[in-house]
Amino acid sequence: MNISDLIEQARSSTGSLGALAEVIGKPQSRISEWKKGTGKPSATDIMLMAEVAGLPPLETLAEVESQLDADRASVWQRALSSLRAASVTGALALLIWTGLGMGPDHAQASIAYPDSSLPSHGRGHWFDPSTAHQRIQGPASHDAGPFRFDAPNTRPTRADSP
């Protein structure tokens, strides 16, 4: 990709050259100079235009700079190769991390808990919003799960207390 192609893609994304100039904060005449080849944009300007055009900024910078600066084109080509290799490595790492593209049913562990292990508080299921308005009336009105209340809660007394 050369600078003219980048400017055209960014211009088509914004609607006009004037709108592009406003977005990147440069005069429209400067962008026209870049397009004609009489001026050279900074790396920041190239990356801003790439973002406006919806292109990957670093890859676009390496491609455009390798064409703008023939003396250092090999440096930019190596940078571009490194970026692409890093992208592939990152994609592979992501696939491995997520289980090589397995669906969510296979990528997670599943532990079955019985419903009795969930608190119900006498209001239906513990997460049922339709029964959330009901109040607990006392220990006899709801299922206490594994806990049973057979006697009222009283404090123990000591035989030697006055």
Automatic annotation (TrEMBL):
Pfam family, one: HTH_3
Top-rank taxon: Bacteria
Alphabetical list of CDD domains matching this protein: HTH_XRE
All copies of domain HTH cro/C1-type, residue ranges: 7-61
GO molecular function, one term: DNA binding
Stretches the record annotates as Disordered: 120-162
InterPro entries listed in its UniProt record: Cro/C1-type_HTH (IPR001387), Lambda_DNA-bd_dom_sf (IPR010982)
UniProt-recorded name of the protein: HTH cro/C1-type domain-containing protein
Organism: Burkholderia puraquae
Classification lineage: Bacteria, Pseudomonadati, Pseudomonadota, Betaproteobacteria, Burkholderiales
